[in-house]
Amino acid sequence: MIANKEKLRSFLKAKKLSEKDFAALLNIEQNEADKLLNGESVGKETAHNFIYFFKAELAQHYIDWQATGVKNPLAENNENN
Questions:
Q1: What are the backbone dihedrals phi and psi of residue 67, each rounded to the nearest 5 degrees, phi first?
Q2: What is the model's pLDDT at position 35?
């Protein structure tokens, strides 16, 4: 999974969360949080924790579907993808 780094950084800024806080909230290693925030590919466990934290309906907006080369599976349910 690859996150949209601009949207994710905007979320952190809006919630006044540090990168360290973000890693703790997702229960992931700091280097994995850094990958998310830099738009790099992360592993299955990090992706799971990301989607679990944001819930699927919200998480879909923070995933960079184009970069992953995968069609958003929730796109039919939401026009704003």
A1: -65, -30
A2: 97
Question: What does the block give as tokens for 19?
Answer: 């990168």
Helix (H, G, I), strand (E, B) or coil at 3: strand
| Residue 1 near residue 63, CB atoms below 8 Å | yes
pTM of the model: 0.82
Q: Tell me if 1 sits within 8 A of 48, measured CB to CB.
A: no
Contact criterion met (CB below 8 Å) for 69 and 60: no
Please give the structure tokens belonging to residue 26.
């997702």
Specify the amino acid at residue 30.
Q
Give dist(CA 12, CA 29) in Å, integer: 17
Neighbours of 23 (CB within 10 A): 21
